[in-house]
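Re: 2'-O-acetyl adenosine-5-diphosphoribose structure - here you go.
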Amino acid sequence: MNVDQDIKNIVILTGAGVSAESGIDTFRSAGGLWEQHKVEDVATPEAFARDPDLVLRFYDMRRERIQQVEPNAAHYALARLDVAWAGNLLLVTQNVDDLHERAGAKRLLHMHGTHLTAWCIACDERHPWRGTLTDRPACPACGIAGQLRPDIVWFGEMPYRMDEIYHALNHADLFVSIGTSGAVYPAAGLVREARQKGIRTLELNLEPSHGTSSFAESRHGPATQVVPAWVDGILGG
Ligand code: OAD
């Protein structure tokens, strides 16, 4: 019997590992972003208040970088699954690039924000954004200059759309975690929530993550190999 035949509703969590082979640095690998920069210098509201130029420059460079890379086979495989899967599916990404949507994923939610919108802290509007913020442009809605910040969830801030994520998890039969180290909560806690609800859990990662023992099943290897193989399997099953 193929146990995949019992699966109707899927929640998939992705992290930096899914974009690594597109050429975007992960955070916690050797030489990764958090070895090159201190979190407390660039990724907290306090850092932004203390040295906005440094923070805006960091995110301007990252925003420019993601526009130079392309989705890889893992992004395309997940988009293929999204299109083909008849049951509920929610792709929850911690990534702030747009590679899932460029590959064609539709049922997608960015829990840590995105590089390609800017958030005006004066009027609370969000705007599509591809250029820089270091030069303190005016908000397209309220016209006030110097109030746009990266639409990124910094440490100490609440990730986006948690209600939708927990709702989807409550109705899921399978939770899959792809390319994430399991170091940052609440994302890292989703596997334990899933286990408590009796939902099947699967990790696809280059290597065992911090949370690997929480998963019922783990498959290790580069995302461009393990993700298409898993998608082929579940669509075939
Ligand atoms: P990490 O850098 O913490 O973890 C990336 C994971 O991907 C590691 O477990 C790697 O082993 C794995 N990995 C690397 N290359 C891979 C590949 N080619 N195929 C498959 N897996 C690979 O990144 P995240 O877990 O995404 O938050 O980090 C979570 C959050 O921490 C980020 O969203 C960011 C960061 O601080 C914010 O900025 C709010």
